[in-house]
Amino acid sequence: MNNVYDFLARLGTTPEEVKNSLLAKKCYGHRGSGEACPIAQALVGEFPDGTFHVTKTEGVKRGCYGDCLCYLPPACLKFVWQFDAGMYPELERCYG
Fold this sequence. Notes:
Blueprint: H1 2-9, H2 15-24, H3 38-46, E1 52-55, E2 59-62, E3 68-70, H4 74-84
Antiparallel strand pairs: 1-2, 2-3
């Protein structure tokens, strides 16, 4: 599914660019959650016909147990590592 990879690649060539793209799209999420990752939220916004699960090791999957659609582009992979480590609190979804 090259259109998923192409969409992700357009988010940016650095983790900072990916962060800025996700902020512009108002895609927030939770650290350590594949389906609540900001990148997964951006995918749902672009491809609203299903859910996506983003992992650092298995790439992007349809739902939690689906087949791998593609691996993350390098900037997105670095972003996920940094987001899960708490480097982008402005993208964390808060309930209150």
